[in-house]
Amino acid sequence: MSVEPLLNSLDKLEKMHKSLLKLAYHKTDLIKGGDMEALDQTLKDEQAHVLAISQLEQQRQKAVTDYFKAKGFASSGSNTVAQVIEAASTQGEKDALKESSDRLVSLIDSLKQQNDLNQKMIYQSLQYVNMTLDLMRPEQNQVNYSKNEARGSHLPKTNFDSQA
User: Region Disordered: which residues (predicted)?
Assistant: First the structure.
């Protein structure tokens, strides 16, 4: 069996991750600009991408499992592309898989870095908003008890005759 179905899956995953990375860069610009409506739409687009990537990942796993079944190896259910690279018949297949895998890993690392940056920017924006709200709120008066209230003499006097 050829590694072509696996290479196709890796290429599709690479394209989807590139698109997701573009959304992450766009999200950075939106965070800087403070456009919440566009940011909300971008988050929805990201969710759609993540769902598509999840489906492509299932296809990739199936391609790996099918490859091992065709080669007569026992499938452990958690076979990886690295294991396929080791088991590949020709050096050309090994090189093509390694190159495709390396591009995808590099792309995922870039995406992770961009998402970390976005997360930090959102956190800083939230800190700024909270600081601004704290400055705008009036300070609450501290409640201190006087000497008499602390001893309990602040109880109201009643006209109740206990001897009646």
Answer: 145-164
| Cα 29 from Cα 23, distance rounded (Å) | 10
Global pTM reads 0.75
Q: How far apart are the first and last CA of the chain?
A: 106
What is the spatial distance between Cα 14 and Cα 142, in angstroms, rounded to a whole number?
A: 59
Any idea where the domains of the chain sit in the sequence?
Answer: 4-135
Tell how far CA 30 is from the center of its chain. 17
User: Which residues lie closer than 8 Å to 1 by C-beta, 6 or more apart?
Assistant: 66, 67, 70, 71
CATH topology (fold) of 4-135: Methane Monooxygenase Hydroxylase; Chain G, domain 1 (1.20.58)
**Joined tokens for residue 139:** 């300070």
Residue 40: partners with Cβ closer than 8 Å, 6 or more residues away: none
Taking only the tens place, the pLDDT of each residue in 101-138 is: 999 999 999 999 999 999 999 899 889 888 888 888 87
- Contact between 80 and 98 under an 8 Å Cβ cutoff? The reply is no
Alpha-carbon gap, residue 68 to 98, rounded angstroms: 17
